Amino acid sequence: MLKFNWFTNITEEMERNAYCPLIEDCSVYLNKVTHNEMVGFTYSSLYCLQGNKKYKSCKRFNACKQLGKQVPRMILPNSPLTIDEIANHHEF
Fold it and tell me: Residue 42 sits in which domain range?
């Protein structure tokens, strides 16, 4: 797996990988988001490991891409929050 460097061109990473380029630092993939291990596994299976069409729809991925930093652990791939709401979240 690739270690994501915040200065790397995300577009290049997306085209080369079948998995999310943020996978190694993602709390969803690392199963640190929920109390139920299967929920974390399901999210990572549906978003992190399903190719660029799926991870491009992940709210965590899009927020990281736009903000240039990791997002709070509690943000899930299908979060209803906007990127601005995530950016203003107090748990960074």
Answer: 10-87
